[in-house]
Amino acid sequence: MTSSGPNRRRTAILISGRGSNMTALIEAARDPQYPADIVLVLSNRPEAAGLARATAAGIATAVIDHKLFGKDRAAFDQALDSVLAEHGIELVCLAGFMRVLTPWFVERWTGRMLNVHPSLLPAFRGLDTHRRALEAGVREHGCTVHFVVPELDAGPIIRQAALPVLPGDTEETLAARVLAQEHVIYPAALAQVASGKARLEGDHVVFAPEAQAGARTAARS
């Protein structure tokens, strides 16, 4: 595969909805020095609002409607892989992509597929992370960018951001502050992977010395 610019890795973003983190990644990649070039936004839902946002940003879009495949997850994932191959994609970022991918697909993209999750993994894997964090009474919450592995939300961690849970926090207020941190750490993590400063080796992430320090950050609000 060839890159779309000098040392820039051809990157696809997979979405199912509004594409909030997608927008943060696109904005970061506007810098010619950013090591990833967002060349495709793909959704499993034709009505996903993020598709229009990607088109407005001048990025190619594609739709693979999962409903057309019924319960055949393998066929859907094969179609997804084919579109990525057609566009010469080197890295994949999941950004609110509400599909559980098959082990076949995940293994094909091992070390080249990232996801952002709204908790400090390994805590609160799965859904409803903010509600569960509040119910558990934790004092610290946050978000994680990790490599994707077949087990849900269990991949090796690339970057995290932690923030305090404040008195009076609701799911909505906590979610909004966590989302703001997702918009910071996802572009940073993609840059680390695209530049080779973070890579997957076996079941752990190997960082270049200068990249290790930023693996976890703390937000003040």
UniProtKB/TrEMBL annotation:
It comes from the Bacteria. N(1)-(5-phospho-beta-D-ribosyl)glycinamide binds at residues 19-21. The record marks 153 as: Raises pKa of active site His. Pfam families: Formyl_trans_N. Pathway: Purine metabolism; IMP biosynthesis via de novo pathway; N(2)-formyl-N(1)-(5-phospho-D-ribosyl)glycinamide from N(1)-(5-phospho-D-ribosyl)glycinamide (10-formyl THF route): step 1/1. It is an enzyme of class 2 (transferase). InterPro entries: Formyl_transf_N, Formyl_transf_N_sf, GART. It catalyses: N(1)-(5-phospho-beta-D-ribosyl)glycinamide + (6R)-10-formyltetrahydrofolate = N(2)-formyl-N(1)-(5-phospho-beta-D-ribosyl)glycinamide + (6S)-5,6,7,8-tetrahydrofolate + H(+). The active site is at 117 (proton donor). GO terms for molecular function: phosphoribosylglycinamide formyltransferase activity. Its EC number is 2.1.2.2. Keywords: Purine biosynthesis, Transferase. Residues 10-190 form the Formyl transferase N-terminal domain. The keyword Transferase applies. (6R)-10-formyltetrahydrofolate binds at residues 73, 115. Belongs to the GART family. Catalyzes the transfer of a formyl group from 10-formyltetrahydrofolate to 5-phospho-ribosyl-glycinamide (GAR), producing 5-phospho-ribosyl-N-formylglycinamide (FGAR) and tetrahydrofolate. This is Phosphoribosylglycinamide formyltransferase. It comes from Chelatococcus albus. The lineage of its organism: Bacteria, Pseudomonadati, Pseudomonadota, Alphaproteobacteria, Hyphomicrobiales.
